[in-house]
Structures are given as C-alpha cells and as structure tokens.
Amino acid sequence: MSTSYDLIVIGTGTAASNIAHTCRARGWTVAVTDYQPFGGTCANRGCDPKKVLVAAADAMDAAERMAEKGVVNGELNIDWGALQTFKRTFTDTVPSNSEKSFKANGIDTFHERVHFTGPNELRVGDLVLQAKYIVIASGAEPVKLPVEGAEHLVDSTGFLELSELPQRVVFVGGGYIGFEFAHVVARAGAMATILNRGVQPLKQFDPDLVGLLVERSRALGIDVLTGHTVLSVEKHKRAYRVHVRTPDGEQTFDADLVVHSGGRIPAIGDLNLDAGRVIYDGVTIKLNKYLQSTSNPAVYVAGDAANTGYPLTPIAAQEGRAVAANLLEGNHSTVNYKGIPSAVFTVPALAAVGLLESQAREQNLNFRVKYESVPGWYTARRVNETAYAFKVLVEEGSEKILGAHLLGPDSAEVINIYALAIRTGLKVADLKDARFVYPTPASDIAYMLP
After folding, report:
1. Pairing with 159, which of 76, 133, 153, 328 sits 20 to 30 Å away (CA)?
2. CB-based contacts of 295: which residues, under 8 Å, 6+ apart?
C-alpha cells in the first residue's frame, strides 16, 4: 500500500510542528511520523521537565544560603516523588495535545520508526509513503559511548522518569546534562560524581567561569573529576561498578545509578539515508544555507537533526520557519545565528553569547576584555551567593559586544540583554546609557563593560 503527500515530516517537536502546520495551512497534504511520544524532546523529556527539577534545586539552594546567615531555620528536603508528580503536570498531556492539534488541522499522524526506501519515499511500519518533499526533524539522541557495559547506563530521559532518586549517582560526561542533573541530585541530598574525559568540562563555555562553577559544584559535595575516561560499567550485585582510566592509573567508582551525560548527536542513524540519496558523514547531513540536502533537493532538515551547532528550542523554531518558507515559496530564507545565547541551568547558572576569548584571538580581532569575580557585589551578597563572575569582550573601534559570559544569580536572564546587543549591533555606550530596574542583576551590566 502506498500513499502520497506533498510533505512528510519526520518528528513532531518544535521545528517539525512549525513546518507541518505552516504547510498544511497553505493547503498542502501533510503527514508526520514519530516513534516517540508526540511533542518532541524539549516538552516531553528535555528542557521543560528538566527546568521543573532545577526549580526545586534552586529553592533548596536559596534556603540553604539564607540558613547560613541564620535567616531560615529548620531542616528542608526535596520530596522526589512529589517533585516527579508536579513535573508530570507539565509533560503528561503533551503527546495527546500535540496529536490532537495535528489531526484537527488535517495532518495525518503515524507512530512508527521510519526509513528511506527512495529519494521521495519512506517506509513507515508496513506502509510506503511517498512525498514531493521530506523534512527530517527527528531531533537528537545520546551519542554511543565506547564503554563496555554501556547498556547499564540510563540516558537523560531515564533520569527524568526516576520514581526514586538513588543515593549514589555517577555521570559519564561533563556537559550540560551532567552538570545540570548533578546539581539537582546534590540539592536532593544524594551523592553526585561527574567523570569528564577532557581537562575542561563544559568546553563550549569560558574556561575561567567554568573553573569557578566547578569550585562551586565541589563546595556542594559534587565530585567533579577531569581527565577520567570511563572504560567499562559492570553490574555489581544491586549496584554498579564504574572502571575508569585516570592520570594516576585505573580507578573504580561504585554507584546506584550511572547516567549517560556524554553528549548527543542527530537522530538520523537509522533513517537509511543512503537509500534517500542524502549525503552525510555519519553524524551530520550535508546541507546548503537553506537547510536543504545538497544531494537530494526533496529533503530539508531542521532542529537538532540539522546539527547547526545550536541545539536550542528557539533555534529549532527559527529553522522551522525558514524551512517552511523555502518549501512554500522557493529557497530564499536563511537563519541568522548571530547572537544566540545559551545557558547551563546549574545553580547558579552559567550563560554565554557570542565569541569566547580564545575564538576572538584566533580570529585576530582587536578587542578589550573585562573579567572579574565579584561575589562582593550586592547582587550576589543579597542572596549569599559565592559564585558571581563575568567576562565581556568588546571590539575596539566599532565598540560592539563580541561576547559575554556570566556566572551567577539570574545570569540566564541577563545574558538575553547581551544577546540582543550582539544581534542588533548595540554599542557599549548604548548599554551604559540603558536604564534597568535597580537593584537587579541587569543593573550590573554597566559595571561589567570594559
């Protein structure tokens, strides 16, 4: 049995939904397929539920910081079961609401794994679907780790669904997932260990600020270990034993839970792209600036599957809008990736936008930089936060912001102002002349500028 459509979208997350609904509104026949719960990673098993857990960690940390000053009395703790129940109020309705929205707009839905059987053809379960255009918006998945016994690791989805929090948790990888979840684990009263293969964890962020975050994490009781390569994980009675190569030789760690936090790659490996004449290097599909396959013009890619370097929900939405416009009106729409902020939702958060100092030097740019650790500033002292720092890069001559890097209270909010400045070309004088509510972290901006 074969069915034809104008468009088939693989995935149902932010980018996929945007494209499917936009094209359907213009009268196209559209189908979507997703073997995972409809709604995508962010809403179901990513940023949204994660931030609910972070909110509990934030509340605990705020209380503990005030307790150090004698302001808050009495023992507090996180009820993990209650936290998960609260989290599910955000996630449980996502799949059904997403599917209802597709069907209400006349979009056919399929719940199957899919693979190409031709340039314009997909096999979905027992069905063969043909389409004028196919969009790959299948998101990302955990990278396969070269670890013996990797099957014993749970991924971020598994961690978010834990009904009980184990007492000893080891994270394999020092990226976003490892640090964010480790901060939650520590605030919930369990032991967290981060094993990072490289010298610097969170390598996408400024190393000076990462160093301060590592110090803050260790002060919480999180064991952050660098230069530690996980070799194997074995089941050991009712727990696990992690074998690691370290600078000082081999070592073992015992854990009740081992979490894969070693990064994610586009979820395209099982799509049989060769049959679709879609060229890729095993990780990334080769695309032109319109997010169109360079080898098969019928195929476009958006969101995390496109691997453009910004695995962020707002970017998926932006790429979705661009792809929809190119499908409907011909290739003309590109994505402006300038000034895209990102954050690690630890407590406190680490945030960044623009160039790292090392990147600016590699580009031989003429710039000045201001870096300070300022726990004595009112913003930090008011909440008894010991980790508050910034690094701001300004181009000489143009006086434009090249990069901004923040660690501390509300840094994930304040970074948006720097992102706006970079995206719109605001100069240092513009930011210094801006007026922000006082006292707020944003009112510190004028003192951060070099």
Report:
1. 76
2. 277, 278, 279, 286
